[in-house]
Amino acid sequence: SQKIEQNSEALNIQEGKTATLTCNYTNYSPAYLQWYRQDPGRGPVFLLLIRENEKEKRKERLKVTFDTTLKQSLFHITASQPADSATYLCAFPNTGGFKTIFGAGTRLFVKA
Amino acid sequence: GAVVSQHPSRVICKSGTSVKIECRSLDFQATTMFWYRQFPKKSLMLMATSNEGSKATYEQGVEKDKFLINHASLTLSTLTVTSAHPEDSSFYICSASPAPNTDTQYFGPGTRLTVL
């Protein structure tokens, strides 16, 4: 079955450093991947979408890569700030694109 | 733009009662709405997909008689948890999409349900 794996351990980094989160997937080749931010007690907020023919996508301090050979996406936050502290979810559409499969998310803590 | 609201944000009820949660797309018409359930530190689990004017499609293992979904208009979907029990306590999140596929879906802020 289609599976997404994100590092369940929290990531702690110092303010100003680059945070890198990993999303691995198996048994599937999605047409695109999405990254969401979720704050405690809130719904996810869409951040970026990267398609299978795109190697990299940027938005302000965010950068996403998509390696279809490794079946992996990396999510980078440069010059991280305490306000970036949240859970980041990786997701992709199932076959047919009518449902979204989410990873469990990685909790990021940015210390001042 | 693309704002989705949920009401209520929190609800506490007694076991055996029914609870209705509303999901509204405020500034766009939602062809499709999705209902998710999320346990602490766990992934979002899709419960059902609803299209305006038709019956919802439930995921395997989700009881349709327990979780009633109505998508009466292009801006409103409701989830009713019938005869709620403590094990139904969870965080329920809806999302809305202007198109049938999930390329673009906008999430509501979620509803925390606690059943005593």
Tell me what you see in this structure.
The complex is a heterodimer of chains A (about 110) and B (about 120). Helix content of chain A is about 0%, strand content about 55%. In chain A, strands 2, 4, 5, 9, 10 and 11 form a 6-stranded mixed beta sheet that branches. In chain A, strands 1-3-8-7-6 form a 5-stranded antiparallel beta sheet, with no helix packed on it. With about 110 residues, chain A is mainly beta. The radius of gyration of chain B is 13 Å and the shape is globular. Chain B contains no helices and 11 strands. The interface of A and B includes residues 89, 98, 99, 103 and 104 of A.
Primary descriptors:
heterodimer, A: 112 residues, mainly beta, 6-stranded mixed sheet, 5-stranded antiparallel sheet, B: mainly beta, globular
What are the secondary-structure elements of chain B, in order, as H or E? EEEEEEEEEEE
C-alpha end-to-end distance of chain B: 37 Å
Query: Largest interface, counted with CB-CB under 8 A?
Result: A-B, 21 and 24 residues
Main β-sheet description of chain A: 6 strands, mixed
- Ends of chain A: how far apart? 41 Å
Percentage of residues assigned to helices of chain A: under 10%
Computed over alpha carbons, the radius of gyration of chain A is: 13 Å
Number of strands of chain B: 11
Structural class of chain A: mainly beta
Low-confidence stretches of chain B: none
Spell out the blueprint of helices and strands.
The complex is a heterodimer of chains A (112) and B (116).
Chain A: E1 3-6, E2 11-14, E3 19-26, E4 32-38, E5 45-51, E6 56-59, E7 62-67, E8 72-77, E9 86-93, E10 100-102, E11 106-111
Parallel strand pairs in A: 2-11
Antiparallel strand pairs in A: 1-3, 3-8, 4-5, 4-9, 6-7, 7-8, 9-10, 9-11
Chain B: E1 4-7, E2 10-13, E3 19-25, E4 32-38, E5 44-51, E6 57-58, E7 67-73, E8 76-81, E9 90-97, E10 106-107, E11 111-115
Parallel strand pairs in B: 2-11
Antiparallel strand pairs in B: 1-3, 3-8, 4-5, 4-9, 5-6, 7-8, 9-10, 9-11
